[in-house]
Design goal:
331 residues; mainly beta; Jelly Rolls; seven-stranded antiparallel β-sheet; 36% strand
Length: 331
């Protein structure tokens, strides 16, 4: 006669299987010991697949009963092993067992505590770390530097990286090349909470810094040129002013008022060769020498349709011009 027993092990005890229907000889253990089941068949074998009934214990001292949701899902207990430490039902992960490598998750990982990482943290649409060739965001671990790098792989080579970086007392928005060996700083703020903001530097490069809302400044705004289609309201405007005495001089885009002193010789003042649309220049004679004139010249551009403005010979007389993008106009 053959004996058939099915053992299932859980943390709280042993599960035994009872074979049904009892058409042929078998030994089963319903929890009270092994006993023969049914009549013996020829050769003592079982010739058809039996059904299986499972018996469970809810605790070590409880009797064996058919498994149900109540006694078949007992809380595990006992010491943990492998990558786990402590005891069930609340083991912990052994920290030293977490080594280098990649952990891939296909779902959402949620935590109610902090996540501390030594190294970089990458976020991308795939399992490849974010980089100039793989769009995403990268938190970079660098001593004494906080750096958030952003990548757009659809841009051209060396135009795919932007970052917010804080170091040496400055927070900067920068563009970097693919190798991160060269950067451009469009916007930088200097200072700190205790010491206050000590400066803001911006650079619009070959383009314009365009602002469509109200621009308020309580300090000094320094710019080589300032163009607006709206209203400028200010307590004071400080613009470039200087005196000239040499026979030939050329104004720059930062010049606003030029005081001509022709007491020693006539003065010819050339306007900027590449003026900004809207730039204004005031040219005033301050000496009393009638014989020596002060003349404002267009430097390749016209002033009221002429190569130069009429010469100034009277003391304190002046000429004012403004550039419309093509021509200088007096007013």
């Amino acid at each position: 006669m053959k004996r058939l027993a099915l053992f299932l092990f859980l943390a709280t005890g042993t599960l035994f299987a009872q074979l049904n229907p009892p058409k042929y000889s078998a030994y089963v253990n319903p929890g009270t010991g092994w006993a023969p089941w049914g009549a013996a068949a020829a050769g003592g074998g079982i010739s058809q697949p039996p059904s299986i009934a499972l018996y469970c214990k809810a605790s070590a001292s409880a009797p064996w009963t058919p498994c149900t949701g109540a006694n078949g899902s007992a809380t595990p207990s006992g010491p943990a092993g492998g990558d786990l430490a402590g005891t069930y039902p609340n083991p912990t992960v052994v920290t030293s067992h977490i080594t280098s490598g990649t952990a891939a998750f296909t779902g959402t990982v949620s935590t109610t505590g902090n996540i501390n990482v030594q190294g970089n943290v990458s976020s991308a649409a795939n399992t490849t770390p974010a980089s100039p060739t793989n769009s995403g965001v990268l938190l970079v671990a660098t001593p004494n530097i906080a750096n958030l790098q952003m990548f757009d792989a659809t841009r051209t080579v060396n135009n795919r990286t932007a970052e917010w970086i804080f170091f040496s007392g400055a927070a900067a928005l920068r563009f970097a090349n693919d190798a991160h060996s060269a950067v451009l700083n469009p916007f930088t703020v200097f200072g700190g909470q205790a010491g206050g903001i000590t400066g803001i530097a911006s650079n619009s490069g070959s383009g314009a810094w365009q602002h469509t809302g109200l621009f308020l400044a309580t300090g000094t705004v320094t710019a080589s040129s300032f163009n607006t289609t709206g209203t400028v309201a200010t307590n004071a405007i400080a613009s470039g002013i200087r005196a000239v005495t040499v026979a030939t001089d050329t104004a720059t885009v930062t010049d606003h008022t030029i005081l001509c002193n022709a007491s020693a010789n006539p003065v010819a003042e050339q306007l900027p060769s590449a003026p900004t649309r809207g730039q204004m220049v005031i040219f005033k004679k301050i000496d009393s020498t009638v014989a020596n004139s002060c003349t404002l010249q267009g430097n390749g551009l016209q002033i009221d349709g002429q190569a130069s403005a009429p010469p100034i010979t009277a003391q304190f007389a002046l000429v004012r011009v403004q550039f419309d993008g093509t021509t200088w106009w007096t007013w």
